[in-house]
Design brief:
about 260 residues; mainly alpha; 2 strands
Amino acid sequence: MGQSGRWEDLTQRLISAGVMAALGVVLIWAGGPWFATLTAVVSGIMIWELSRMIAPDKRNVALQLAVLGTGAILLARYLPPVFTIPLLAATPMVGASLLKRERVIFALFALAILVAGYGLSGFRDAHGVVWLFWLVLVVIATDVFGYFAGRFIGGPKFWPRVSPKKTWSGTVAGWIAAALIGLAFRQFTNAGPDLPLISMALSLASQMGDIAESAVKRRLGVKDSSSLLPGHGGLFDRFDGLLGAALLMLLVAQLVYVPEVRF
């Protein structure tokens, strides 16, 4: 592929990423209902994209599932905890009953999306904004360093059957970038010495999220989850890595102490 072919989508990617980053920073910083609404809406759109990929002819079903998923996260935030599991499980169960194919894929991914969306909102309330920015920066660094290392260095493919573009050079570059983010955050937080290793684990989880979505798209025979974001495809294409990293972060937060850092 020629040089222009390699970078022809870079401008669109940068503009879209810049807009998303600006909106994300503002709403993450605002926290509370603002960030909760963001996570709910993004989760709903991702469920809409997942439904459309599985059953492109069932547009009304996709919209209904998106609304149901968005509402589930918002209601779970304000209702007693006893309602949380039923609310988050409702969309995967309803979707699996309405869709005629790939029901297990829908149920698993929809549940992962909703758990991550709900969990991130609660995590922001409990631990402040710093660790959300750490999570986002680890995912961005993994993606950006992997993107450029893969194109400048190239080399053997990481998992060619599932993700033909991902290389070992890009994968390792993502781990290194994540470790550097962890080292940087150790300088102004009271996190333990394992933060760079946890950052690398999140980087790997981000890459696995990307690969998992790539596997679903290849199975369903689609290139992008949607065309909502110029140069990126859909929100599911853009946030698949964040989904994987967020789920691991939420799990780690249940196992280790998360120091609170607030401004």
